[in-house]
Amino acid sequence: MAKRSGTGDVSSRVRLNRALVLDTAIAIADESGIESLTMRKLGEQLGVEAMSLYNHVANKDDLLTSMVDAVFAEIELPSHNDDWKSALRKRSVSFRDALSRHPWAIGVKGSGTNPGPATLRHHDRVIATFRNAGFSITMTAHAFSALDSYIYGFAMQEQSLPFTTEEETAAMAHILLAQLPTKEFPYLAELTAQHVLTPGYNYADEFPLGLDLILDGLERWL
Amino acid sequence: MAKRSGTGDVSSRVRLNRALVLDTAIAIADESGIESLTMRKLGEQLGVEAMSLYNHVANKDDLLTSMVDAVFAEIELPSHNDDWKSALRKRSVSFRDALSRHPWAIGVKGSGTNPGPATLRHHDRVIATFRNAGFSITMTAHAFSALDSYIYGFAMQEQSLPFTTEEETAAMAHILLAQLPTKEFPYLAELTAQHVLTPGYNYADEFPLGLDLILDGLERWL
DNA sequence: ACCTGAACACCGTTCAAGT
DNA sequence: ACCTGAACACCGTTCAAGT
């Protein structure tokens, strides 16, 4: 009775399975951060001892890389019905949205080493979109690298910001500005005061500008 | 005598200080990866118990964020003598080089929350370069975000690759290709076989292409 | 086939004690 | 002022034992 508090399963306890373990792990990482996702806590949340989890995942690394593949499964694939540019624009926005919902995903190391099926599928469809638009193999590699580097890097910068809501941003910027030696860093102070502290400022709004810059540049490559 | 094996100080033991602690921590992270940088191991390397380190750093978080600031100090600042584009091009290449020498630096969370003096100085000088080139405050913010997102993301993708040398790349690509269901992922297979397995392929070579794409795009914004 | 309890070899960090 | 030894509350993971 005391053991079951986590999930709130009312009737009989749900039989553990890999999908349930993954979903619960993702929920914990989303809510409390990846650093608080421990095998013991995950077990507790599922009403089970930590050691039971090893019947469903090989180890914590297996758990983490599978979680990343689950995030890739959430990304909208480029559509065959759109032209290449708007197809890739939509999937890029969807990609950033997924990384924004699951900020821990970009920090999981080793997920590039052995990508899961959803990740492979996603990459294959993006490459297909470039190739069918007329990009050569070499140019496709260049384009893919440039576009996804931007998306990953944007998500990383967004994640590293110490604020999310507009109110938090304003409050944080005020504190930073107060601490900042403005004599020494005048340009940084100016940007903070006159851009970040502007009403309605939201870093996420910067995303489409850089995205279009890159997509326009890729179009020029064609 | 047994205790001093790590550093190899011959004569009297070197007095511990913050700079020595930071440099040794960076050396460990560079050589063995950030996951093997523990307070106990760092102490051992310095010929001291782990607890002594707390006389020089507040805690492990303080250590990590200070290490990141030391990496920023290695980046070449944009020169006043170059035009804005080549000044930012040089510092961008230098930025990627620094992240390539210290791949753990992009994974340190919380380093964006309270940036160190070298980081602030670096940001200030990059913003200054945009402003003096004629970018408005708003356009400077857009440009800065786009450019550094690309650099961070490229470094992250580069780091997540399971190979570094050309030989490793070819060997790894062969293995990946053999495992890959080529019927299911034909475009990914094609790119791997005909681009990655090309003699002389090196992912790092992709960097300048995306960089110039972005810098040219920014120039068009002016 | 799945779950558990105890144990192992680790972590970061504290605190009182030494010099 | 700096360093140490013991201890605390954690980790991931193993293994034999239970059902």
UniProtKB/TrEMBL annotation, chains A, B:
The keyword Repeat does not apply. Residues 15-75 form the HTH tetR-type domain. Residues 38-57 bind DNA. Keywords: DNA-binding, Repressor, Transcription, Transcription regulation. PROSITE patterns: HTH_TETR_2. It comes from the Bacteria. InterPro entries: Homeodomain-like_sf, HTH-type_TetR-like_transc_reg, HTH_TetR, Repressor_TetR_C, Tet_transcr_reg_TetR, Tet_transcr_reg_TetR-rel_C_sf. This is AcrR family transcriptional regulator. It comes from Subtercola frigoramans. The lineage of its organism: Bacteria, Bacillati, Actinomycetota, Actinomycetes, Micrococcales.
